[in-house]
Amino acid sequence: MKYFELLEKLHSVKDEKFAVFQRKLIFTRQTILGVRTPLLRKIAKEYRGEIHSLMAFPDEYYEVTFIKLAIVSSLPYEQFVLWLEQCLLRVDNWATCDCFKAKCILENKDDFLQKLQRVYALDNLYAKRYVLVTMLSYYMDEEYLETAMEYARKTPTDEYYLHMAVAWLTAEIVIKHFDVGVEFLKEKALSPKTHNKAIQKAIESYRLNKEQKEILRSLKIKNNVR
Fold first, then answer.
1. Residues with Cβ < 8 Å from 146, sequence gap 6 or more?
2. Residue 71 confidence (pLDDT)
3. Nearest residue to 216 via CA among 193, 183, 191
4. pTM for the complete prediction?
5. Which residues partner with 31 through β-bridges?
């Protein structure tokens, strides 16, 4: 497959109104054509066997990078991890990062935890966000909670997209393991802003009852200036 052929296919199914909507939500250096996610995933399936050719294409379009990562995420685990870091270094926005999910991780959780350590060490904002989002997606079992909380503790949250990811991860811990989550919040290990955002996100969930939400409200940090 040639690069221009892929671009022709994408242009043939783009939706300019959707592109305008996406550009308001996704801040990226890439050009957004406005191809809806189900169509991108369908195209990715068509080109699953051409990953080497695709990875050589430039990342000037949001949709091209999305297709690359969608294909890599569908590969067997051994192949997926070979492409992982290269993929993450191409990501420059929250949407591509958060959609980069591989089901093969589920059968290889312990091994992948080691890979996540290496990924987190990359000097890359979205590599760190990827680790946080992966933890809340695949590692909410009790045996992995301490690891998840440790990532939350050590992640700097001055950057908005890391602040939101830590808050999201913490909220998920609170929702799924309330007592553990409450004790974590009582540590006040997070910045006041992130701490309170995590509580807000947890309270917004229908999965907690009224009494639990009242407990969370009592844990908010007042005079939050950050």
1. none
2. 97
3. 183
4. 0.94
5. 61
Q: What is the pLDDT of residue 226?
A: 45
For tokens 């309170």, name the residue: 196
Beta strands in the chain (DSSP E): none
The tokens describing 51, both together, are 């990953």
Q: What is the pLDDT of residues 91-139, one digit of tens each?
A: 999 999 999 999 999 999 999 999 999 999 998 999 999 999 999 999 9
- Cα atoms found within 13 Å of the Cα of residue 109, Cβ hemisphere only: 13
CA 211 to chain centre: 30
Q: Among the residues of the chain, which ranges form H helices?
A: 3-12, 16-25, 37-46, 51-55, 62-73, 77-88, 94-99, 109-120, 125-138, 145-154, 160-176, 178-187, 192-203, 210-218
Q: How far apart are the first and last CA of the chain?
A: 50
Which H or E element spans position 146? helix 145-154
Q: CA–CA separation, 146 vs 37, rounded Å?
A: 34
- 56 CB contacts (<8 Å, ≥6 apart)? none
Residues of the chain above pLDDT 90, percent: 96
Condensed to tens digits (0 to 9), the pLDDT of residues 38-58 reads 999 999 999 999 999 999 999
Residues 6+ apart with CB under 8 A from 16: 34
The two tokens of residue 131 are: 């680790």
Question: Alpha-carbon Rg of the chain, whole angstroms?
Answer: 19
Token code pair at residue 164: 């939101």
The burial of 14, by beta-carbon neighbours within 10 Å (0-12 exposed, 13-18 middle, 19 or more buried), is given as: middle
